[in-house]
Amino acid sequence: MNAVLERLLRNQSGVIARRQVLAGGMEDLDIRRLLRRREWATVHDGVYVDHTGEPTWLQLAWAGVLFAWPAALCHDSALRAADGPGRRERSAADPIHVAVDRDRAFAAPAGIVPHRLGDFHAKVQWNLGPPRVRVEQAVLDVAAESRDDFATIAVLAQAVQSRRTTAQRIGEALEGRSRIARRKFLGDVLRDLADGTCSVLEHGYLDRVERPHGLPRPSRQLLESSRGPIYRDAAYRRFGLVVELDGRLFHSSAEARSHDLDRDLDAAIDGRDSVRLGWRQVFDHACWTAARIGVLLQRRGWEGPVLRCPACPDSGDLTSPGDDDPPLSA
Predict the structure, then answer these.
(1) Chain-centroid distance, C-alpha 23
(2) 25 and 124 both lie in a single domain
(3) Average pLDDT over residues 233-240
(4) Is a pLDDT exceeding 80 seen at residue 328?
(5) 36 vs 161, which has greater pLDDT?
(6) Buried (b) or exposed (e) across 212-247, using 16+ Cβ within 10 A?
(7) Does residue 80 share a domain with residue 104?
(8) Judging by DSSP bridges, how do beta strands 96-101 and 112-117 pair with one another?
(9) 318 part of a folded domain
(10) Dihedral sign computed on CA atoms, order 21, 22, 25, 29
(11) If you placed Cys at 5, which of 24, 41, 71, 209 could pair as Cys (CB 3.0 to 4.6 Å)?
(12) What pLDDT, in 10s, does the model give residues 23-71?
């Protein structure tokens, strides 16, 4: 095998297409010999890998792109390629999502999910290996097709948190997608992410607790560095209150739990109270939580009332039995 084909195999994770082999100076009989000797194995018709073991996900991704060429990874496959190897929740059995030009006919073999894409060439990063649609386009596709609002927010938040892109850049891509599903909701979430919310739970606090009940606006992801860098989820600095949002369903380790307690102690040292909220407080009892955050803020000098939202009970207050604090305002 000549140096050109060897370099091509290295650059394509050990995967090569028949047309590339022929263009590189070899013939069909050479391909048959390599297959017979079990130096190569067929992945798809006309696409080969340079070993006979189980192909990796990256090799399957290359095989899908080369089979459908000109093509590019899209949807979740584009995001997975951007993430790189090692994500534990990923599986080599996941289908490969491949985009081709909208005008092309493309019969996909098993394991490949085809997508036809308008303005195809402009949306693809051809210099990457494998080629893939731009991350903003892939994020929008996955978010729009997510099973529910939680999953949609998680996709958008994870993309921004990973620093692969920004909420502003995804929003700009959304402006060019007039036919995308759930367009308004995607735009609303992206605006909130640009405003500083960085997780599903933080967005839920803004959208379910803070905003509909008229709570004051906190500083989000506030960096404090007096005892090392710490990001506060929602800091009501004027009123000496910090709200920490714990999106984990459980603490992954004693060390993680200890870290959370250290953050609360640091807030106390700085003369502030720290309140830690989870999924139940934000999504199951948003009105209940808003009333209590409002009481804490009022005790520290906030003069505004906690407003009722459409989901609040019709009568009575949401403070605990025997509490003399005022109810939610109408």
Answers:
(1) 40
(2) yes
(3) 89
(4) no
(5) 36
(6) bbbbeebebeeebeeeeeeebbbbbeebbbbbbbbb
(7) yes
(8) parallel
(9) no
(10) positive
(11) 24
(12) 999 999 999 999 999 999 999 999 999 999 999 999 999 999 999 999 9
- Which residue type sits at 59? Q
Structure token pair of residue 64 = 């899908």
Expressed as residue numbers, the domain containing 261 is: 213-299
**Overall residue count recorded for the chain in this entry:** 330
Say yes or no: 40 and 120 in one domain.
yes
**Whether residue 126 is found in the same domain as residue 143:** no
320 within domain boundaries = no
**Amino acid identity, position 183:** R
Mean pLDDT of 259-285: 68
The Cβ-side half-sphere exposure at 86, using a 13 Å CA radius, reads 3
What whole-number distance in Å separates Cα of residue 151 and Cα of residue 144?
Answer: 10
What pLDDT is stored for residue 320 in this prediction? 44
In a domain, 208, yes or no: no
